[in-house]
């Protein structure tokens, strides 16, 4: 069976700026991918390209083995609503229900009952005009479309701008449940990494238009630690490890590593009076993308 | 059970340990039906694959078993197996830390033993 | 293959954004009609005082405005349609269909209004592209022509909108200027056709060809269009293009206006009177020979005599008509002084219009 996404050597330039450079990724069926990267790393560009809304400068994109450009079969399998407020500024005459009505015509797997359920969950007023929607409501509209479309490839790009914590929890709930019942490939980009990371199965990290890493969440959890204790001990014990950040507090220090620790190593560290904790995905992300020199992945 | 991003253990292990805890405290009894992958995924808002991995780990360790078409059940002898396994990690996960802490604040071995004796009698130290 | 469901969905999107235009249109229609009714009631005039003629200019203005607005609104929904996973060629196809539908609708509304005007007017018949609006049958060729013309207009505007969307402000304005430049060069032909009509078949052919040309241009422009937030950014090449097109427009306007008045001269006499016992209006013009006079004569009189006579330099009668008539003729001119006269006798409540164009 072909992969859900095959991207080979993808480059995208806007005039003189390079947004993506030589990106090669493949994504399997029915997994949730976390797409992480700092602002301007190229996440949105990548999603637009996947959905055929931007065209590559170089390289190829295949969705379920098919080229996306002008391909109805492939396009019908993708749902990418994007940063809703930018794209749909022109559709000012629309009411919320018009967006849903239109979306239901475009997505073959649209589930109206599910859409109605989500509308009730978010208490969305479907009679409201587009121009009167707050950024949170706009996010709700795009979430409803993204989820109810049940597209085999669903792209969620920072889906909850303006949503409060409670609404975000509802969104995670609904996503986890609906994904369990209707598995599909989801690419999920977000800055609230710690909140969302439990939903990821794989993580793709984009940095300055290039792929920094693509690993399963488990692999990352098992290979990112922060170890605190006496700096002399840390230095000697961790000399052969890939250290991505050092914080000093007098003689004590905190070494963050992006490396594995075997089951034999961990008790040794503990016995040496060092404290071993996991780095959260968010911390790992911050350290990896901040660290420009000496980065070894 | 609470999931922690900072625990040195991956989420699937935390899930597995949570289920083990429920079995040890008899919230889940041997022979009873255990939680489903989707249920865990929904409750903890985690990826079902991660939840599945935690459950599969317990299946491999013969703590849970699968009944075709019905779901996951707690195996007979699960409590015993969990205890055996946990004993091995008790030293690494708990005792070392306690002893290191004791050393730091100057509590001697005898004092610790006294504390244990008092605890068993139900007194506060 | 084009998917009918997709096209239907697109038309739905267009309709949702365009229905506001119809709301405006019908509002203007209703406001205008009720104002007239109100005035008629106030002054206790006869229902004949309802004047469709006062309604027409407003409505034609609104309809032409819609021809511009509809394709522009379509262009602005392109990013939305792309977001929903539409193919670019589907968008182009559906928008062309949409243009055709609206063009047909607008033509139908306009033809109905013109038809009502033509059949109820007691006044001098209007002339439009060589056709006198005298009854329903005279509307038919005009309607057909309008249909093609409006379709062309929407396609051109759609193309200009597409360049704005794809390439940005300067290229869009530049292409607009380029199209205007081409148009002004043929000002003479437009003017001539607007008054005298003549070669309908040829005009239809040209319009269809230009429409096809612009649809293809739009296809080309949209084939690589992307979803991007539109920023009016001015780059050096686009600025040069814009300035170049501005220069071309200025020179072609100069050229077009120059052509308009070259080798031709026009005669234009209009008059209206309530009562007239007797009167003659005479005039003359000189022809260098080997020329033609295109003449349109329209007259409307309730009672009495109204006669037009055109005499050649040798005093032969080249053209004459009397009473209420609408005629359009072409008369070969020989060298010399030509005379024409309008004679009115015991006339009551009348109007006439004499229009002539002398050219090779």
By secondary-structure content and strand pairing, the structural class of chain B works out as mainly alpha
Distance between the termini of chain B: 29 Å
**Helix content percent band of chain C:** 55-70%
Order of the strands making up the biggest sheet of chain B? 1-2
The proportion of residues in beta strands of chain B is 5-15%
Number of domains of chain C: 2
Strand content of chain C: 15-25%
Anisotropy-based shape of chain C: globular
Return Rg of chain B in Å. 18 Å
* Helical stretch tally of chain B: 5
Tally the beta strands of chain B: 2
Low-confidence parts of chain C lasting 5 or more residues at pLDDT below 50? Answer: none
Q: Biggest interface and its residues per chain?
A: A-B, 34 and 25 residues
C-alpha termini separation of chain C: 52 Å
The shape of chain B is elongated
How is the topology of this model organized?
The complex is a heterotrimer of chains A (297), B (125) and C (360).
Chain A: E1 5-14, E2 17-27, E3 32-37, H1 43-50, E4 58-63, E5 66-67, H2 72-75, E6 78-80, H3 84-87, H4 96-106, H5 112-121, H6 135-148, E7 153-157, H7 165-181, E8 185-189, H8 193-196, E9 202-207, E10 210-216, H9 217-221, E11 224-230, H10 231-237, E12 243-249, E13 252-258, H11 265-271, E14 275-278, H12 281-290
Parallel strand pairs in A: 3-8, 3-9, 6-7, 7-8
Antiparallel strand pairs in A: 1-2, 1-4, 4-5, 9-10, 11-13, 11-14, 12-13
Helix pairs in contact in A: 5-6
Chain B: H1 11-24, H2 37-44, H3 48-60, E1 64-67, E2 71-74, H4 78-104, H5 109-121
Antiparallel strand pairs in B: 1-2
Chain C: H1 4-42, H2 52-76, H3 78-83, H4 88-120, E1 127-128, E2 131-132, H5 136-167, H6 169-185, H7 187-196, H8 200-222, H9 236-261, E3 264-287, E4 291-311, E5 317-322, E6 326-333, E7 336-359
Antiparallel strand pairs in C: 1-2, 3-7, 4-5, 4-6, 4-7
Helix pairs in contact in C: 1-2, 1-4, 2-4, 2-5, 4-5, 4-8, 5-6, 5-8, 6-9, 7-9
């Amino acid at each position: 069976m072909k992969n859900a996404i095959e991207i080979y050597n993808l480059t995208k330039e806007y005039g003189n700026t390079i947004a993506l450079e030589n990106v090669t990724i493949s994504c399997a069926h029915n997994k949730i991918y976390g797409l992480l990267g700092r602002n301007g790393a190229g996440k949105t560009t990548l999603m637009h390209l996947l959905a055929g809304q931007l065209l590559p400068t170089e390289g190829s994109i295949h969705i379920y083995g098919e080229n996306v450009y002008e391909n109805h079969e492939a396009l019908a399998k993708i749902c990418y609503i994007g940063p809703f407020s930018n794209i749909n500024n022109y559709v000012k005459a629309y009411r919320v229900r018009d967006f849903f009505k239109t979306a239901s015509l475009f997505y073959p797997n649209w589930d109206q009952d599910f859409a109605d359920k989500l509308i009730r969950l978010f208490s969305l007023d479907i009679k409201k005009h587009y121009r009167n929607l707050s950024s949170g409501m706009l996010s709700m509209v795009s979430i409803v479309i993204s989820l109810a479309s049940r597209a085999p490839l669903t792209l969620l790009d920072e889906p909850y701008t303006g949503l409060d914590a409670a609404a975000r929890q509802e969104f995670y709930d609904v996503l986890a449940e609906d994904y369990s019942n209707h598995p599909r490939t989801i690419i999920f980009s977000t800055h609230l990494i710690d909140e969302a990371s439990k939903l990821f199965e794989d993580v793709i990290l984009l940095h300055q238009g290039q792929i920094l890493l693509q690993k399963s969440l488990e692999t990352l959890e098992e290979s990112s630690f922060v170890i605190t204790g006496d700096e002399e001990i840390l230095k000697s014990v961790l000399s052969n490890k890939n250290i991505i950040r050092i914080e000093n507090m007098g003689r004590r220090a905190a070494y963050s590593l992006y490396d594995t620790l075997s089951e034999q190593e961990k008790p040794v560290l503990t016995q040496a009076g060092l404290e071993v904790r996991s780095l959260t995905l968010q911390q790992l992300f911050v350290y990896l993308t901040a660290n420009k020199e000496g980065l070894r992945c | 059970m609470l999931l922690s991003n900072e625990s040195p253990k991956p989420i699937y292990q935390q899930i597995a340990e949570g289920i083990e805890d429920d079995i040890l405290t008899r919230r889940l009894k041997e022979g009873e039906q255990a939680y489903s992958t989707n249920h865990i995924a929904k409750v903890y808002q985690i990826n079902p694959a991660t939840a599945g991995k935690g459950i599969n780990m317990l299946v491999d360790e013969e703590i849970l078993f699968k009944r075709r078409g019905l779901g996951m059940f707690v195996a007979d002898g699960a409590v015993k197996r969990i205890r055996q396994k946990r004993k091995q990690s008790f030293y690494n996960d708990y005792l070392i830390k306690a002893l290191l802490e004791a050393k730091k604040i100057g509590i001697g071995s005898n004092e610790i033993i006294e504390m244990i004796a008092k605890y068993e009698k139900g007194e506060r130290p | 293959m084009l998917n009918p469901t997709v096209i239907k969905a697109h038309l739905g999107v267009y309709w949702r954004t365009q229905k506001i235009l119809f709301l405006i249109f019908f509002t203007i229609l209703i406001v205008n009609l009720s104002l007239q009714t109100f005035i008629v009631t106030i002054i206790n005039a006869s229902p004949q005082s309802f004047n469709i003629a006062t309604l027409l200019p407003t409505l034609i203005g609104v309809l032409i405005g819609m021809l511009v607005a509809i394709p522009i609104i379509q262009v602005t929904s392109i990013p939305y349609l792309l977001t929903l996973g539409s193919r670019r060629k589907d968008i182009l196809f559906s928008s062309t269909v949409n243009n055709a539908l609206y063009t047909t609708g607008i033509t139908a509304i306009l033809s109905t209004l013109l038809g009502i005007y033509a059949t109820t007017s007691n006044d001098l018949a209007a002339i439009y592209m060589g056709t006198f609006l005298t009854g329903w049958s005279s509307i038919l060729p005009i309607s057909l022509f309008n249909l093609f013309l409006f379709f062309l207009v929407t396609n051109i505007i759609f193309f200009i909108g597409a360049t704005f969307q794809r390439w940005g402000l300067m290229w869009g304005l530049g292409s607009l200027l380029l199209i205007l430049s081409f148009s002004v060069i043929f000002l003479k032909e437009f003017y001539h056709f607007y008054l005298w009509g003549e070669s309908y078949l040829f005009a239809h052919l040209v319009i269809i060809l230009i429409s096809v040309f612009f649809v293809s241009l739009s296809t080309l422009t949209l084939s690589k269009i992307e979803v991007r937030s539109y920023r009016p950014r001015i780059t050096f090449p686009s600025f040069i293009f814009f300035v170049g097109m501005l220069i071309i427009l200025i020179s072609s306007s100069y050229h077009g206006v120059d052509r308009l008045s070259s080798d031709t001269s026009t005669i234009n006499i209009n008059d209206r009177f309530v009562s007239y016992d007797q009167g003659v209006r005479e005039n003359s013009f000189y022809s260098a020979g080997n020329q033609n006079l295109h003449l349109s004569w329209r007259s409307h009189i309730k009672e009495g005599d109204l006669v037009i006579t055109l005499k050649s330099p040798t005093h032969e009668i080249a053209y004459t008509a009397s009473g209420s008539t609408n005629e359009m003729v072409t008369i070969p001119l020989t060298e010399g002084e030509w005379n024409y006269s309008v004679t009115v006798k015991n006339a009551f409540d009348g109007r006439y219009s004499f229009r002539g164009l002398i050219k090779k």
